[in-house]
Every structure is written in structure tokens, then in C-alpha cells.
Design brief:
8-stranded parallel beta sheet; single chain; globular; 11 strands; 2 domains; 269 residues; binds nicotinamide-adenine-dinucleotide; Rossmann fold
């Protein structure tokens, strides 16, 4: 299947319009004729695949006995990040959530503690949760770093899902740097890793592996309980299209959806 995800983003949406920040529209195209075969919402797919990528990373890179998860950012992404981490780290029994807007953290804690049946504590200070965490996920709209090196415990798996959320020192303290796709991270110029590469403080050779290399056993994942492992995802379009294609095929099988005609007949051939 071929396709595209077109994503719109307005960070003010949750605050001014009671709408999600991001909305996505996915168009799938037949791999042979390249004609469009489906137009569908991509918002949920996008959030789920972003969570899933961190979930896969946590499966290979977090300590098996991880018990405390700290989420930085109480938005849409951290809801699916939380679901995915809980799916692969069954010993997690406590979750902390910090947001610059404490009301968002409180609402997130209330809703997710009920939906995931786990203790979720909203925080006014990020440090309080980060210091205790075995797994950290940052998914915010921050433009200045939040998480500092000395707050991160040895053995921690810390995921940078959005932009400049870790200090340069925090990233430098990682024993392993794992990415979804390095070239895209640099193209986006957004995350702590990208900014450090742009400033010449790190280069591609400092990246230990891509997540694909770890999953395919070309590189080992976690090797010791003490390792600090940093994971940076920028998101890959293929994840959206693969999931959308599966949903499209399932929908066709179940007779769901509405048939639309592109045209009665093509005007010219
Ligand atoms: N890596 C990927 O594949 C991928 C995919 C989708 C989104 N993202 C990124 O994830 C981030 C979050 O997206 P979302 O949909 O959850 O957005 P959202 O608007 O739903 O949530 C973002 C939250 O961050 C909070 N925030 C803003 N500045 C902060 C700060 N300095 N400290 C703490 N909290 C702060 C906001 O109050 C808000 O609650 C975005 O930057 C987006 O680009 C990454």
C-alpha cells in the first residue's frame, strides 16, 4: 500500500477550542494503479503508532523489572505512550505525570488511573517523578529542556518523543542512544539529539542503533541493569500507512465505510 498522512497542528486547540492539538487525514493509494482507495481519519492511528514505537523500544531497552513510569506532558501522545509502556513493562505499578499546566496533569491522572487501573499521580514539579522513574517519556510542546542529568537514575530508559526536552548533559549521560530513523531526526531539527548533532556535539557515529537493528538482533538491546538508554523517535510515515492499510482491509472485510466515487469515468486517458 502507498499513502500519505497529512497532519494539522495547533498547540492552542486543547486550551482555546476544546479540540486535540493534532488532526490527521490519511489517504491510501493502490500500490499498482496508484489510484486513491481510501480517505480516513489518521488522528488515532498517529497517536497509537507513536505510543507503539516507544512500547517496542521499552520492550528491548527498559529494565524488565521497571516499576515506575514518569510521563512529562499530559497530552494526547502520553496517553498512548502510557498504554504502550504498561503493555510491555508489566511490573509498572506507579505512574507520575507532569505538565506545565497542572490542571491538564490532574485531568490526565484522573482519566488514566481509571482507564488503565493504575495509580497515577499528577505533579507540580517534574523532578519529583523523574528521580524515581525507571522509564521516562517526554511528549510536550516544550522548547526548552525539562529533564536534567542528575534527576535520571542509572538503569533508566528515557524516551524523547517530541523536541528539546532533555538537557544536553542528560543526553550525554546516556550509555546508549537508539533512534527510529536518524536522517529524519536531523531533517526535523527538533529533538535534543538533533540539536546536539547540529551544534557538532554529537554525530551519527554516537548513535548506537536504530530500533529496527535492535528488533532484528543486528545490535543488542539492554545489556546491563545499570545502562541509561535514550530513545528518540521522530515518527515514520510508514508506521501510519501500514496501520491504515490494515484498518482499510479489515473495514472492507466487515463491510464498513462509505463508498465514494472519484469520478464516473476518467475525463482523459
Ligand atoms: N515522535 C513522534 O512520532 C511524534 C508523533 C506525534 C507527536 N509527537 C510530538 O509529541 C508532542 C506532544 O503531542 P500531543 O499531541 O500530546 O500534544 P498535546 O497538545 O496534546 O499535549 C502537549 C502537552 O505538553 C504540555 N506542555 C507544553 N509545554 C510544556 C513544558 N514546557 N513542560 C511540560 N509540559 C508542557 C501542554 O500543556 C500539553 O498538555 C508534540 O511536540 C508532537 O510534535 C511526536
Amino acid at each position: 500500500m502507498a499513502g500519505i498522512k497529512w497532519i494539522g497542528s495547533n498547540p492552542e486547540n486543547p486550551f482555546k477550542h476544546n479540540l486535540p492539538r493534532a488532526s490527521a487525514l490519511t489517504v491510501l493509494n493502490d500500490p499498482v494503479t496508484k489510484l486513491p482507495v481510501a480517505v480516513m481519519d489518521g488522528t488515532v492511528i498517529s497517536a497509537m503508532r507513536t505510543g507503539a514505537a516507544t512500547g517496542v523500544a521499552a520492550k528491548y531497552l527498559a529494565r524488565e523489572n521497571s516499576s515506575v513510569l514518569c510521563l512529562i506532558g499530559a497530552g494526547v501522545q502520553n496517553r498512548t505512550q502510557m498504554k504502550a509502556v504498561l503493555a510491555v513493562c508489566p511490573n509498572v505499578s506507579e505512574v507520575f505525570v507532569y505538565d506545565i499546566d497542572f490542571g491538564r496533569a490532574q485531568k490526565f491522572a484522573e482519566e488514566t488511573s481509571a482507564s488503565e487501573n493504575i495509580k497515577v499521580t499528577p505533579l507540580k514539579e517534574a523532578k519529583e517523578g523523574v528521580c524515581k522513574a525507571d522509564v521516562i517519556v517526554t511528549a510536550t510542546m516544550a522548547t526548552a529542556p525539562i529533564v536534567e542529568k542528575d534527576w535520571i537514575q542509572d538503569g533508566c530508559f528515557f524516551a524523547n518523543v517530541a523536541g528539546y526536552e532533555y538537557t544536553f548533559d542528560a543526553l550525554k549521560s546516556a550509555d546508549k542512544i537508539v533512534v527510529d530513523r536518524f536522517s529524519e531526526i536531523i531533517h526535523r531539527k527538533h529533538s535534543t539529539l538533533a540539536l546536539m548533532v547540529i551544534e557538532g556535539l554529537l554525530s551519527e557515529k554516537d548513535v548506537y542503533a536504530s530500533l529496527g537493528e535492535v528488533v532484528n538482533k543486528k545490535k543488542q538491546g539492554r545489556e546491563t541493569p545499570e545502562e541509561r538508554i535514550y530513545f528518540n523517535s521522530v515518527g515514520m510515515g510508514i508506521e501510519d500507512i501500514a496501520i491504515a492499510a490494515r484498518i482499510y482491509r479489515e473495514a472492507k472485510k466487515s463491510g464498513l465505510g462509505v463508498e465514494l466515487s472519484l469520478w464516473e469515468n476518467p475525463l482523459w486517458i
